[in-house]
Amino acid sequence: MSIDWPTFGLDLHLEIDPGAGRRAGLERALRSAVRDGRLAPDTRLPATRRLADELGLARGTVRAAYDQLIAEGYLTARPGAGTVVAGFVRPGPDGTAADAVLAPVRPRHDLRPGSPDVSTFPTAAWLRSARRALTAAPSEVYGYGDPRGQIELRTALAEYLGRTRGVLARPGQIVITNGYVQALALLTRALGPAVIALEDPGVANHREVVRHNGARVVPLPVDELGARTDLLDSLEVDAVEVSPAHQYPTGHTLTAARRRALVDWAREDGGLVIENDYDGEFRYDRQPVGAVQGMAPDHVAYVGTVSKTLAPALRLGWMVVPHRLLEPVIEAKRLADHHTEALGQLTLADFITGHGYDRHVRACRLRYRRRRDLLLARLRPLTDGLPPGLTVHGIAAGLHVLIRMPDGGPTEGDVLREAAAHEVAIGRLADRWHAPGDHPQGIIVGYGTPPGNAYSAALDALHDTLRQLVP
Amino acid sequence: MSIDWPTFGLDLHLEIDPGAGRRAGLERALRSAVRDGRLAPDTRLPATRRLADELGLARGTVRAAYDQLIAEGYLTARPGAGTVVAGFVRPGPDGTAADAVLAPVRPRHDLRPGSPDVSTFPTAAWLRSARRALTAAPSEVYGYGDPRGQIELRTALAEYLGRTRGVLARPGQIVITNGYVQALALLTRALGPAVIALEDPGVANHREVVRHNGARVVPLPVDELGARTDLLDSLEVDAVEVSPAHQYPTGHTLTAARRRALVDWAREDGGLVIENDYDGEFRYDRQPVGAVQGMAPDHVAYVGTVSKTLAPALRLGWMVVPHRLLEPVIEAKRLADHHTEALGQLTLADFITGHGYDRHVRACRLRYRRRRDLLLARLRPLTDGLPPGLTVHGIAAGLHVLIRMPDGGPTEGDVLREAAAHEVAIGRLADRWHAPGDHPQGIIVGYGTPPGNAYSAALDALHDTLRQLVP
Q1: How far apart are the C-alpha atoms of B130 and A127, rounded to whole Å?
Q2: CA–CA gap between residue B350 and residue B373 (Å, rounded)
Q3: Residue B13 above 60 pLDDT?
Q4: pLDDT (tens digit per residue) in A308-333
Q5: Which helix (H) or strand (E) holds A318?
Q6: Pick from B102, B209, B449: which is nearest to A146 by CB?
Q7: How far is B65 from chain A (nearest CA, A)?
Q8: Which alpha helices (DSSP H) does B36-116 contain, by range?
Q9: What is the pTM of this model?
Q10: What's the gap in Å between the CA of B16 and the closest CA on chain A?
Q11: CA distances from A409 to A387, B304, B439 (A)
């Protein structure tokens, strides 16, 4: 499908990929037009009704696409002016529109989940570790290396993960990756054409990654006891991805019975468990529950990263791979990019062995715990009223909470539009389900992202947003 | 196929993947056994004839597999003792065999192609650039970023590539990758199920990467005028990968007529040219020929890296992507690993804009030019004799030469075994062909790798090796 946009005073040719779903196709076409400058900042988009008519889509589809792009920062809902293309940070030096589009402008109050407070990145300590590591390293580290990564880092991680997460790992079975997404991609490739169960709700992007690498995705329902691992026997899958320490996005911990069911399934059916331990360092009310990997190291591929503890931009992750998958995983890594960049690995190894990493994680844990407490206190007037009110879900852990709206209450779209008017960006539950349908309405609030001095104002904006919508 | 190895006094269970070719399968099984410690250093391997009998393979297949693993450094031909498992550098701190196997020991004289002299990596200047870049950067650079990479680096590269390689690029169409292999993988993914012509002889690993990402590979013959781009019309392919500045491994430059044929094919058939400019900075006898991309920017994806100029371990490359492929390439990158690690990008951007990169490349150019001259002078007694003698192929460029053996002269296997006896590692032409067959015999000598003080001894060892074989 392809439309020109002169009806709206815009000379825009919008290519909609017929292979994508209708909403996804419209989102991608708009995102692409914004990215390459065909839709310039401040351009006003047509009203949802008009665009829906023009494209032959349901109005709700167009509205959902707008909502999504508002959440991503490509568009802005401007009170009184409808939906406009957002401005962008750091315009390109040559001033052309296409190159100016670098990253969507950060919303004033950024409570989207997924990123820590990067303003606390320990730049000076990191540079010291880099200097120490590179000065000591033999020149061979600058050549092509082991696809698994630098032995210094794998050795440091084997100790660290054993001590803090109960992971049983020898350096030889650790593979360093460019963050979680690459680990999932490599494991999927190593499994060959497989069927993989992913949590529902879960991370939308992981479904894309698994499919992109040739496997089929089936949903594994999640309830308040965590993922329904008791259903695995009936699903006929080769592997399952779970987030046992802190399910994303519901925030539950997998119960002991469900952990046993998971391990029993893996042992009896020969299935692979992919353990996504994305924020296992951050538990606030007790000692964190150890990794499932420690119970069944031959059946679990454990994956962790520095994306929540240090910075996503480092693109450093690790997986502990069961022996039977080690060779195909190494081969997939070699064919993906030979190995992960070495200098960051050596720096992180120094940072871990010098205990800088432990200190940093401890400081972050205190900071995020305080933030979670502040969030819950600020919303208490809206959550402690008589039902039906808002409910906050999830254990005292991690960097996000799930807030559910009562049945018959405001929809996610209602909340997102109100949030946009208050210049606050949040995540919505809708994208985390495997299939559209009549799902509970909820929003995901990430309290990790704002710099410390901006957090209080962000909470005020969130509170004011929600107060408009619940009685 | 699977054998136990007690007949040879080794309790080794060797799994040979029936999907791989016989030789490749045996190589992989042996490599894996060495890597994970089942074959310990100094273990003596069975004679080729005995293993061939045991496995039901031709003796030549076993010998070729041994030769390959000797070239890769996993095995060593020890005079009088047959073939043994090589020792390994930097044993793992916990001393277990599996973890001790980190990287094959560097051969005494390393003349394998593919890596520069990493002992010249400008560590101090690099750390200064890192400090300058990170101190100046806003904290947002530590978060998730544009899948294309950091705008600072893309802007610096647009200028640098235009100035030095005649590449026409706007920062918006540059995508930073983890080196060449990832760029090729992403382009293959972006093309969808495609047929891609690769140079024959060419880089074996690239064929694997293309196939691994769902495309079919067809050979594009190479002669002394470069790749036979005049044949593209008859090949019915969607894309072609070429190395126009310095064909790998033959060392030819694509002639002007062949460049025109390449561009005409791309324009008329809508095909994509993947331009592998892996060592375009290193031309010694004249100004380098500009990139083909400058002639047809809408039809050429230009790819370069720092792997030959700075260090493979940085895993930093770039591609300039034609507009029609930009969106699928960005999507493939996002699903591969979100984006390339940001700190190295910012450091390289500072290094380029501060002219440190130009200075370093200039110094390397002088160094490698001198090395090439020394190599040719050292071999002159063997190449200037009456035919049939050795012939050296390739223009005055890059980091390698191809040395052909005369028809009826020594085989590559002969040379590799003699080289192993002299503790010198070289590349062989055989692996670069798409299919086995009756190919000309040749070896590839990389003069970039040895540290400066080791180069002269490496040349002596190479000379002594070849002198044994040619009259």
Answers
A1: 8
A2: 33
A3: no
A4: 999 999 999 999 999 999 999 999 99
A5: strand A317-320
A6: B102
A7: 18
A8: 48-55, 59-72, 97-100
A9: 0.83
A10: 12
A11: 11, 55, 75
